[in-house]
């Protein structure tokens, strides 16, 4: 049930990220911007791809906005994790490493009633 890590090891931030991690936010923002421009054209009764410059500007603009928001989010959570890590370092007695348990110790015995 428990991986045997101490609370400081859990907050160390050594998790690996996939190759898609840094491409997801700007890609999704770009697709949303492009589709938003298509939706505006559809709503006004114009062909979907007319005024292609609007599509490019919307895709690049929302992609950049999504990238900026993703970087802000990453920085915010890094600061939050650093604050938690510092608190755990100052109060190690409040965060003992839990003992490792087996499933057999956690589950109660079960007898089916038929």
From TrEMBL:
InterPro entries: NDUC2. It comes from the Eukaryota. GO terms for biological process: mitochondrial electron transport, NADH to ubiquinone. Its main location: mitochondrion. GO terms for cellular component: mitochondrial inner membrane. It is a single-pass membrane protein. Pfam families: NDUF_C2 (PF06374). Keywords: Electron transport, Membrane, Mitochondrion, Mitochondrion inner membrane, Respiratory chain, Transmembrane, Transmembrane helix, Transport. It is found in: Mitochondrion inner membrane. Accessory subunit of the mitochondrial membrane respiratory chain NADH dehydrogenase (Complex I), that is believed not to be involved in catalysis. Complex I functions in the transfer of electrons from NADH to the respiratory chain. The immediate electron acceptor for the enzyme is believed to be ubiquinone. Belongs to the complex I NDUFC2 subunit family. This is NADH dehydrogenase [ubiquinone] 1 subunit C2. It comes from Aedes aegypti (Yellowfever mosquito). The gene is 5567286.
């Amino acid at each position: 049930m428990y991986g045997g890590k101490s609370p400081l090891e859990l907050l160390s931030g050594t998790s690996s990220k996939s190759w898609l991690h840094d491409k997801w936010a700007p890609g999704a923002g770009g697709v949303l911007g492009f589709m938003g421009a298509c939706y505006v054209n559809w709503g006004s009764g114009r062909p979907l791809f007319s005024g292609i410059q609007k599509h490019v500007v919307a895709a690049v603009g929302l992609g950049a906005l999504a990238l900026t928001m993703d970087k802000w989010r990453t920085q915010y959570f890094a600061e939050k994790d650093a604050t938690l890590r510092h608190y755990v370092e100052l109060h190690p007695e409040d965060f003992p490493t839990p003992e490792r348990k087996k499933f057999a110790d956690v589950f109660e015995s079960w007898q089916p009633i038929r």
